[in-house]
Amino acid sequence: MEDKRRRARVQGAWAGPVRSSGASYAAPVSQCSGIDNLPASIGQTKRSREQPVTKLQFVFKEPAEVTRRIPELRVIDKAGVYDISTSAAGVSRLHLFPSFIDPKEADWMFEHLQKEIPWSQKTNFRQDGFYQEPRLTAWYGELPYTYSRSTMQPNPHWHPLLTMLKNRIEEVTGYIFNSLLCNLYRNDKDSIDWHSDSEPSLGKSPVIASLSFGDTRTFQMRKRPGHEEHGDYTYVERVHIPLDHGTLLMMEGATQEDWQHRVPKEYHTREARINLTFRTVFPEHSGIWQ
Ligand SMILES: O=C(O)CCC(=O)C(=O)O
Fold first, then answer.
1. Does position 256 have pLDDT exceeding 70, yes or no?
2. Which runs of E-coded beta strand occur in 102-207?
3. Which class would CATH give 71-286?
4. Residue of 194, 261, 273, 279 best suited for mutating to test ligand 1, as the one with most atoms within 8 Å of CB
5. Ligand 1 within 6 A of CB of 192
6. Cα(185) to centroid of ligand 1, in Å?
7. Where are the domains of the chain?
8. Ligand 1 mean position to 172 CA, how many Å?
């Protein structure tokens, strides 16, 4: 898809002498309005059009057409480390581990998590009022967690399966996590809208480990536009990552500062999906919040 925008430019320029065989085209003075009022020296040009023009004259040019292309969508679906952007905030890095959990093992984990996690529906707040988040969640850790202007109370009693998964991710990635947001998307209509995990309690450049089970959903990312775009996301880079059963996605560096993500509703049937996002939350008095 391409959008052609004409930018206002000065429609012409003062050109030097134009020879009759020259590359640039000088509009014959006879095409200019008000010819009769021109000084005699210019008026002569009308009479001797075949003669080389030796005076400066205004050359009309078509305004330049500036073509802006919407960057091509990038799909990431193979194992690897991907630096998706670099800015003053640093490198935004993704690390994808498909089949981090073996499919058979992932099947029984999904069953246990769906039955045994104390799922509940959160009530969030936005400008037009309160709304029920279209998914179920559970929060584990020592500290409360606030997003969308609603706070989840901590549950320090980790399900043993969650502790085992946390340990396994820590061993492989070398990061340590102290909290976990569990998400249950009951069907294709459950979703989470554009946001970034950039709450002050997560500190600067938070690392998020996101482990998925169940039906595949597309994790969509879009880059935050520069100030000159005034909040217009039309031309930003986009990345789609299909997150399937047992896949681990690590988001590191400036990813939360420079990108947003969402899991949109789908318009064809999807079965349930569980997503576990391991994070590190810092206490308010740690100084990290400033
Ligand atoms: O479900 C997912 O893959 C993403 C969840 C998410 O972005 C969040 O809970 O902050």
1. yes
2. 123-126, 129-132, 136-140, 145-147, 150-152, 179-185, 192-195
3. mainly beta
4. 261
5. yes
6. 10
7. 2-67, 71-286
8. 21
Question: Can you tell me the distance from the alpha carbon of 81 to that of 93, in angstroms, rounded to the nearest whole number?
Answer: 7
Which residues touch 135 (CB under 8 Å, ≥6 apart)?
Answer: 121, 183, 184, 185, 186, 190, 191, 192
Check residue 99 and give its pLDDT: 97
Q: Are strands 259-263 and 217-223 parallel, antiparallel or unpaired?
A: antiparallel
* Residue of the CA atom closest to atom 10 of ligand 1: 197
**For residue 19, what pLDDT band results from cuts at 50, 70 and 90?**
very low
Determine which residue's CA is closest to atom 1 belonging to ligand 1. 275
Residues 6+ positions from 15 with CB-CB distance below 8 Å: 24, 26, 56, 57, 58, 59
- How confident is the model over 36-58, as pLDDT tens digits? 444 444 444 444 455 565 677 78
Give the number of the atom of ligand 1 that is nearest the alpha carbon of residue 185.
1
CB 226 within 8 A of CB 186: no
